[in-house]
Amino acid sequence: MNIHEYQGKELLRRYGVAVLEGHVAWTPDEAAEAAKKLPGPIYVVKSQIHAGGRGAGRFKEDPNGKGGVRLAKSAEEARAAADAMIGKTLVTKQTGEGGKVVSRVYVEAGCDIGRELYLGLLVDRATSRLTIMASTEGGMEIEEVAEHHPEKILKVAVDPAAGISGFHARKLAFGLGLTGGQVRNFEKFVAALYKAVIDLDCAIVEINPLVVTKAGEIVALDAKVSFDDNALFRHKDLEELRDDTEMDPKELDAVKNDLNYVALDGEIGCMVNGAGLAMATMDIIKLYGSSPANFLDVGGTANAARVTEAFRIITSDANVKAILVNIFGGIAKCDMIANGIVEASKNLSLSVPLVVRLEGTNVELGKKILAESGLAIIPADNLADAAQKVVAAVQAARNGAAAVKKGA
Ligand code: ADP
Ligand code: MG
């Protein structure tokens, strides 16, 4: 789960991570009020969306105007900046062409920037450790630095059992060319950030840029905080930071129904139990020349209600031209799944071809239920057969549509 910059900074502040004072504002008036609470004379008004590259981004409504991060020299200028952002669509390198609507801004104290660095902390699955990454190339996209100047990214791995020590941070500090008091400030900063990442079960925290001020302070000027979804149950208080408007509505629906769903841009809707089987199903659809519209794992405890929910989410995607159900009945029995499919198909008056492959416990009974349902369900015997049938069904539907067009 991702959160907004201002929320991330608020959390990090509690752990003693150095951030500047700032206030969130939902209206231009609130932005002016927020600026008045800050010392001045420089304020920065920052669009809050779940995407980076805001500074260099442009608003759809004003493509030749300024970006999503603007300086203001008075409360009135802060109000004007907020007015130019709130309710507008910001397009950045990370949002895609559609952009994202800004619903609120963060008004922050201006910073006297000396140097802009990069600092990231993430769980590295390969080493089973936390990796701290740092670079002198702050402010730019770290992916580009990684591609063109990998030597400019410094890495230190921390064994979570032993925890962080001063030498981890010092090693990075010297690599970054920090000196004297800057090194001590950096050490403090990294230790506080590490504690926040562990306590909050973050998957990744990126500070880009991490700034060395002219006075030698180390400050987080940006903060991207992302939590490990599998640990969110331990942090009920973080749930309220979820911004539903930033999520794909189908994915949001899936989260609420406890389904593992990721929207993709293909044409075949998939309903599968088990992540491994779901991956294999997506692969084989590709192999036979089409592409999946989603990843959906209904889980080992799939039942009729979940099957219905899953169908509802899949069919709400206009790109779905056919559905492939691939269920291995273990704990979830095939007859129960078959009943769920029949019920859901009727309730949702399904209009696209549906291919079903069942295997496992009570498979014969499950197949019988589908066959006797009176619905136009296409049965399949194995994974390859199912994939071929669903791809053929999509192509037949496309050819049919083309023929109708030609005839007209
Ligand atoms: P994004 O990464 O989405 O573009 P950032 O928060 O990194 O947004 O801001 C972009 C740039 O704006 C920073 O690299 C920095 O130069 C400048 N900036 C951001 N916040 C401040 C601030 N409080 N004071 C001065 N400059 C800032
Ligand atoms: Mg940034």
TrEMBL record:
Keyword Magnesium: yes
Gene: sucC
Binding note for cofactor: Binds 1 Mg(2+) ion per subunit.
Domain called ATP-grasp: residue spans: 9-236
Binding site for Mg(2+): N208, D222
Enzyme class of the recorded protein, top EC level: ligase
Protein name, as recorded: Succinate--CoA ligase [ADP-forming] subunit beta
Cofactor(s) the protein requires to work: Mg(2+)
Entry binding sites for ATP: K46, G53, R54, G55, E108, C111, E116
Binding residue positions for substrate: N273, G330, I331, A332
Recorded family membership: Belongs to the succinate/malate CoA ligase beta subunit family.
Function: Succinyl-CoA synthetase functions in the citric acid cycle (TCA), coupling the hydrolysis of succinyl-CoA to the synthesis of either ATP or GTP and thus represents the only step of substrate-level phosphorylation in the TCA. The beta subunit provides nucleotide specificity of the enzyme and binds the substrate succinate, while the binding sites for coenzyme A and phosphate are found in the alpha subunit.
Pathway stated in the Swiss-Prot or TrEMBL entry: Carbohydrate metabolism; tricarboxylic acid cycle; succinate from succinyl-CoA (ligase route): step 1/1
UniProt organism field: Plastoroseomonas hellenica
Subunit field text: Heterotetramer of two alpha and two beta subunits.
Domain of life: Bacteria
EC number: 6.2.1.5
Reactions listed under catalytic activity: succinate + ATP + CoA = succinyl-CoA + ADP + phosphate; GTP + succinate + CoA = succinyl-CoA + GDP + phosphate
Record keywords, A-Z: ATP-binding, Ligase, Magnesium, Metal-binding, Nucleotide-binding, Tricarboxylic acid cycle
One GO molecular-function entry: succinate-CoA ligase (ADP-forming) activity
